[in-house]
Design goal:
Layout (H helix, E strand, L loop, with lengths): L1 E7 L2 E5 L5 E5 L20 E3 L4 H11 L4 H18 L7 H17 L9 H7 L1 H18 L5 H23 L2 H19 L8 H16 L9 H12 L1 H14 L5 H14 L4
Helix pairs in contact: 2-3, 2-5, 3-6, 4-5, 5-6, 7-10, 8-11, 9-10, 9-11, 10-11
GO molecular function: RNA binding
Organism: Clostridium pasteurianum DSM 525 = ATCC 6013
Keywords: Repeat
Length: about 280
């Protein structure tokens, strides 16, 4: 392989005999090297093969602004996530997650918190992704000696959740369908309560995000925990209007929701319709 472009001593763009391009990382792989010279393949540690051209070009731009150790760290996190989740991610995960984590590290160094308002939902509905987020924080601590807060594990998990959803939606063509369904459900809530929802509120954001994740779970069979019966009955009594609104949504969806889904949907309706 021949060096096409050098980002720094540890990161280059190289092309093979078939003119395929790769982003390659390795300690000192570009040290005292110039474009056009042969790559020392013994120094290759990580190879990024991005099949989507647009993603590949954006990733190269990212490398010009982000420390190579951040890129290398994110590569390890993504590979770990692939092995745990047994999925292939869209190429853009290398851009979005790398950019996010690098920025999160900069914010941490500046003493700025980046809380995730959806951490409770993510822990509850996506425990695997959240555990990967926690593992990513351990990677960051081991590599950079920076102990980022637990909220950041949820932020990382959200990237993994979204990219899985994008792959699924791209294959099934459900993006527009789900967008319409979210709009319809919001209208059911608005007409039931005869109110205008505050689209800038955190409860509105939580509700819409919950619905997006909900559509990904719809149709998946899950065992319902026994305590959900007690909690649902309690919520049904305490928030009767929200519960009845949830039943309208269930009827619109033409499916029987689990107790767990009924419970959390009712709670979200109650939150998003509160005025205080």
């Amino acid at each position: 392989m021949i060096i096409k472009k050098i980002f720094n001593n540890n990161a280059i763009v190289a092309k093979d005999s078939d003119k395929h391009e790769y982003v390659i990382m390795g300690c000192g792989i570009a040290f005292k090297k110039n474009a056009g010279e042969k790559v020392d393949e013994n120094l290759i540690e990580k190879t990024f093969i991005l099949k989507q051209k647009d993603a590949s070009e954006k990733f190269k731009l990212l490398l010009e602004d982000i420390p190579s150790e951040h890129v290398s760290l994110c590569y390890d996190i993504i590979e770990y996530a692939k092995n745990i989740l047994k999925v292939e991610f869209n190429d853009y995960i290398y851009i979005t997650l790398t950019d996010h984590i690098s920025n999160a590290i900069k914010l941490f160094d500046s003493g700025i918190d980046n809380p995730n308002a959806l951490i409770w939902e993510i822990k509850k509905f996506y425990p695997k992704e959240f555990q990967i987020g926690l593992k990513a924080l351990q990677f960051i601590k081991d590599e950079l000696d920076k102990e980022l807060p637990e909220d950041e594990a949820a932020n990382i998990a959200l990237h993994l959740i979204n990219v899985q959803g994008n792959i699924s939606n791209d294959k099934t063509g459900n993006v527009s369908k789900h967008t319409k369904m979210i709009k319809d459900i919001l209208n059911i809530v608005k007409y039931t309560y005869n109110i205008t929802l505050d689209e800038k509120s955190i409860n509105y954001e939580r509700f819409v995000t919950h619905l997006r994740f909900f559509f990904q779970r719809l149709g998946q069979k899950k065992d319902t925990a026994l305590e959900d019966d007690f909690l649902l009955n309690h919520i049904k009594t305490k928030y009767s209007k929200a519960y009845n609104c949830m039943l309208k949504i269930e009827k619109y969806l033409e499916t029987k929701l689990s107790n767990e889904e009924q419970l959390y949907l009712t709670v979200h309706i109650q939150r998003v319709t509160q005025r205080n």
